[in-house]
Every structure is written in C-alpha cells, then in structure tokens.
Amino acid sequence: MSVFHTAFEAALSGDTDALLPHLVSDARTRAAIGVYRNTALKARIDALEAGYPTVVQLVGDDWFRAAARAFAQAHPGDDPVMVTYGARFPDWLLTFEPARDMPYLAPCARLDRAWTEAHVAAEAPLMTPSAAASLGVALTGLTVRLHPSVRLFRFEWSAPSLWLAHRFPGAAPEPLVWEPRAECLMVHRVAGQVRARLVSPATFAFLEACQKRRPLGIAADQALRLDRHQSIPTLFADLIAANVFQTPEPEART
User: Which stretches of the chain drop beneath a pLDDT of 50?
Assistant: First the structure.
C-alpha cells in the first residue's frame, strides 16, 4: 500500500490531518472524505448484516445495524474482501454492553461466522467409501484430515438448537429453550452447499480427535469412552458419506 493510500485510509477513520501532505484540507476535501467515509462504513455494516443473519433475526434490524456501526467504527478492517470482514464480531459482542442480557448472541454469532468460513474454505479431495474399504485394518493406525470447511463446536448451553431454529426453521429439536444443556454441532460444506447438524458427544469426540491429528483407532476409543454402544463402523461410514474426511495423503498409508 502506498503512503497516500495509507493516509487516505487513516482519513476515512477520522484522521483527516493524515492527508495534509497530499491534499488541501479545505471544506471541499473534508466533504469528499466524508462521503467516502460514510460509504465505507455502510459497506462494513452491510457486510456484517449479510454475514450474521441469525443475530439479525434475534435482535432486529435496527438494533443490529446500531451494533454493527459501533463495531465497524472501532474495527475498520484492512481486507478489501467484504465477505471476510467481521471475524472479531462474535468476541466483540461479549464486551458490548447492550448485549449483556443476551448471552446467546455471541455463540450464535460464532456459528454464523463458521457458516461463512465453511462457505469460503478451500476445496480438497474427499475420502470415498471404496478408498476407506481398501485400507482394511490399516485404518486403525491411519491419521486423516478433516475437510477444510469443517467447523466443530461444543457449547454448555443450547446455542446450537437456538441457532438452527433461526437459520433452518424446523431443524432444531423441540422444545426450543435457552438452557444449560450441552450440545455439539458440525458445520461443513458438501458439493458447494454449507450444511449444519447437531452431532452426538461421541461423534464430536471422534471428529475432535481427528482434528487433533490422532489416529483413527484413538478417535474410536475417544468416542467409545462416551458411548460404549456406539458402532464405530457406522459412525465412520456416516461421516465419510457426509464428505467430512480428506483423501489420506500417500505417505499416511504406509
């Protein structure tokens, strides 16, 4: 970025003096900068509104845009790709005084963010049932990577059900209440479409172990510790069908 562009960015954030070496600081210049500043601010607010639709539903348009304005003014960002803007918004909500009595907002914002991240995540070759079957008993010692779009969550409160009910009406179990109930959720992309679903604690433990690069045998043990009746072949087959795993790297097969 050039010196001028750096100064112009500072001016958009309110420091108009930064442009003095480059432009005459008169009323006309300040008015022009104000137009750019308002346009840039609106773009950030619009990006947040598009990226956090569940939060918008929970609080309403006016409340959200006021909060988005406060965030955008404090965090202008430095990435011109608006779809990536607002990664810190969920954490910021934890400190936003008007959200103090809505503890579900930040968790739901985290899930909205995961949806965006899953949407823009890189592609990767997927493990197929036939490829897994060809490995036989070697699967136990195999380490597999999760698809780049996979996002895993475990909450001590019922944030996943609340989020699902607003993002996908009818997808959450009934009754829908905000309560201290542990829930696990997986967000991932399949054939270009982002999906989300509640998963059992055993499934979450299996996936989390894989995410930590543990061998599948260890992942299976982690799942069975939580549910000794869990069928590991069924669990594994279900996750393969969901396009959760990458094709093992050649060196991982040896």
Answer: 1, 35-36, 251-254
Say whether 196 sits in a helix, a strand or coil.
Answer: strand
Identify the DSSP state of 152.
E
Query: Taking the mean position of all CA atoms in its chain, how far away is CA 101?
Result: 23
Cα(240)–Cα(229) distance, integer angstroms? 20
Query: Which residue's entry shows tokens 């934890």?
Result: 94
Q: In whole angstroms, give the CA distance from residue 162 to residue 54.
A: 9
| Phi (first) and psi of residue 195, to 5 degrees | -130, 160
What is residue 77's predicted lDDT score, i.e. its pLDDT?
73
What is the amino acid identity at position 46?
D
Pairwise CA distance, residues 190 & 181, whole Å: 28
Strand ranges of the sheet holding 183-190, from the earlier edge strand across to the other edge: 151-155, 183-190, 193-199
Instruction: Mention every residue, 6+ apart, whose C-beta is less than 8 A from residue 145.
Output: 124, 210, 213, 245, 246, 249
Question: Over the range 168-203, which residues count as b (16 or more CB within 10 Å of their CB) and which as e?
Answer: eeeebeeeeeeeeeebbbbbbbeeeebbbebbebbb
Q: How far apart are CA 71 and CA 106, in angstroms?
A: 14
Report pLDDT for 27: 58
Closest C-alpha to 36, from 64, 18, 14: 14
